[in-house]
Backbone:
């Protein structure tokens, strides 16, 4: 087990190294002069020289990469060109909001998805299964941004129940206001997660229900309920673990849309703004952070997978 | 197995035996026809701005109303079909060609080549697809051509992984060995023997990817990183329209419905193709 975890951590190290090279390269891929690309064409000679040396453009790429990496590892991700502040400072205010929303949406969508998936599998082929599967298939295809616009139209513009923008944490200030503000964003973020988890749970449960040991358990005289919830569910949930990691990653991706629909000052809306204003240090930082979080979650799910399913460890 | 007219017939019969698949296929074809004949179907020029009639609700002259510049929403949706389908199909072809090639090379040669390609693929997969695509638009800019390339590159990893697995499972089979003994070169074996025998998982993957690519394109356009202002695209229409939800909700909501319907039908049709290609499932149905 220990060796397996060490091996996975080493692999993650390699992956993170590749990602860091990739994000660093983003800067060098920009066609034309990187200084102009960052600062705009009408930059003064003085400013040009400052940025030129700040980016160390007089040095070879490899030197630049390692000095960038060194700084990044010390938490220095450069200066944001649109906010004129340190990138780490800009992100510090915004990342917690996105993580908070993504994590809550994750917590909402997983149990619900598993519940619907199990219901669907248990009633396979019956009306209930068809309804659940159809709804799951449809919601998985809905564009997140459109769902956001739709619920905003219904619940804040037409019914006036919920505020259409804004964000606050429940711990600083009014809990009710915070809940009202986060209700629609969380709904949009969880919807896709519920749908994919339902589909995954359904198919892996169906796979398990067909297995011999389930039939044996049934023929021993155990009740259907007991077999499903004790024997089948335990094994049926193992494949679901793998998609958990991906879910959190795609929640971070989905936060771009939700944050921009509901004007939430999180990392997603920052990322969009950074791209439109060519604020490359912020773009790099956002890619790095998302990849880092996704990698960590993947590592955790892999370890969890190995703990739950001993067959993985042997290999 | 491949190519013989009998199996093609079996495949088609299995595909058309399910009503829902046929229905979804018909809807997809309807969208394709709309895209193709957009100039004949659209009642107005999508870029013609009638400033006397902006943000009108649905009426007889403008079936879905007008947008904030007085342009006909229906006509813009009809033209938006083109953008979505062109980008969806192009991106999938790009991803498929490059991804299949690298996956095949990784699986066939193994060793260090495999290690390098696999690690790179894992690294790309670690970044959520939207984030990756967005980062690439920051570098390369947007527009139809760039967007197709960017979405293609960012969905390539799936093909590499699938193809690598596919090659590993048939590399040791007798007919590959026989081809090797006949003195075929590595690339001959890859393209004449391995590729044709992996064609069904490739087709399945492609049909399933078109929908998600269209979804990504709409998302990027919604965020203002995809198709830029005057060109009509579904994503950017939702984005323009959400400010005017109270005046003309149809303007913002219908393009999203189009995205959803097209993607749902593409995915269901894709699932139908997958099931029809799978001999095990074909027997059951």
Residues:
């Amino acid at each position: 087990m220990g060796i397996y975890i060490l091996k996975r951590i080493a692999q993650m190290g390699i992956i993170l190294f590749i990602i860091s090279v990739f994000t660093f390269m983003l800067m060098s891929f920009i066609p034309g002069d990187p200084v102009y690309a960052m600062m705009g064409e009408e930059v003064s000679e003085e400013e040009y020289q400052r940025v030129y040396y700040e980016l160390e453009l007089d040095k070879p790429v490899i030197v630049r990469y390692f000095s960038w990496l060194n700084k990044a590892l010390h938490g220095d991700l450069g200066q944001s060109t649109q906010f004129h502040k340190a990138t780490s400072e800009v992100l510090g205010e915004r990342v917690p909001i996105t993580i908070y929303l993504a994590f809550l949406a994750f917590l909402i969508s997983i149990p619900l998805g598993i519940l619907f998936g199990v219901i669907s599998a248990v009633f396979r082929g019956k009306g209930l299964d068809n309804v659940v599967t159809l709804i799951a298939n449809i919601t998985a295809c809905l564009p997140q941004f459109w769902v956001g616009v739709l619920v905003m139209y219904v619940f804040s513009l037409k019914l006036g129940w919920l505020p259409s923008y804004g964000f606050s944490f429940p711990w600083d200030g009014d809990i009710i206001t915070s809940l009202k503000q986060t209700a629609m964003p969380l709904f949009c973020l969880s919807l896709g997660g519920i749908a994919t988890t339902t589909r995954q749970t359904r198919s892996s449960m169906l796979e398990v229900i067909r297995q011999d040991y389930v039939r044996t358990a049934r023929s021993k005289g155990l009740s259907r309920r007991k077999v499903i919830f004790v024997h089948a569910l335990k094994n049926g949930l193992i494949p679901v673990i793998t998609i958990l990691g991906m879910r959190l990653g795609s929640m971070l991706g989905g936060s771009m849309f939700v944050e921009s629909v509901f004007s939430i000052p999180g990392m997603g809306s920052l990322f969009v703004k950074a791209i439109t204003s060519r604020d490359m240090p912020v773009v790099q930082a956002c890619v790095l952070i998302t990849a880092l979080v996704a990698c960590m979650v993947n590592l955790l799910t892999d370890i969890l997978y190995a703990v739950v399913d001993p067959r993985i460890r042997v290999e | 197995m491949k190519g013989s007219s009998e199996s093609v017939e079996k495949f088609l019969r299995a595909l058309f035996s399910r009503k829902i698949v046929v229905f979804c296929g018909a809807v997809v074809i309807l969208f394709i026809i709309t895209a193709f004949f957009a100039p004949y179907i659209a009642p107005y020029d999508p870029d013609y701005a009638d400033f006397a009639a902006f943000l009108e609700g649905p009426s007889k002259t403008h079936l879905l109303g007008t947008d904030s510049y007085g342009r006909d929403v229906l006509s813009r949706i009809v033209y938006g079909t083109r953008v979505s389908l062109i980008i969806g199909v192009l991106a999938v072809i790009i991803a498929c060609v490059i991804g299949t090639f690298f996956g095949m090379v990784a699986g066939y040669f193994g060793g260090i080549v495999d290690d390098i390609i696999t690690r790179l693929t894992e690294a790309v997969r670690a970044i959520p697809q939207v984030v990756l695509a967005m980062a690439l638009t920051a570098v390369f800019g947007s527009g139809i051509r760039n967007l197709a390339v960017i979405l293609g590159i960012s969905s390539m990893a799936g093909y590499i992984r699938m193809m690598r697995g596919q090659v590993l499972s048939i590399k040791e089979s007798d007919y590959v060995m026989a081809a090797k003994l006949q003195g075929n070169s590595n690339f001959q074996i890859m393209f004449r023997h391995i590729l044709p025998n992996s064609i069904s998982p490739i087709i399945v993957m492609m049909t399933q990817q078109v929908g998600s690519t269209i979804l990504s394109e709409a998302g990027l356009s919604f965020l203002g990183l995809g198709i830029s202002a005057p060109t009509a695209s579904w994503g950017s229409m939702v984005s323009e329209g959400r400010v005017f939800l109270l005046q003309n909700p149809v303007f913002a909501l219908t393009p999203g419905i189009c995205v959803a319907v097209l993607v749902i039908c593409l995915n269901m049709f894709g699932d139908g193709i997958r099931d029809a290609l799978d001999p095990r499932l074909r027997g059951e149905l």
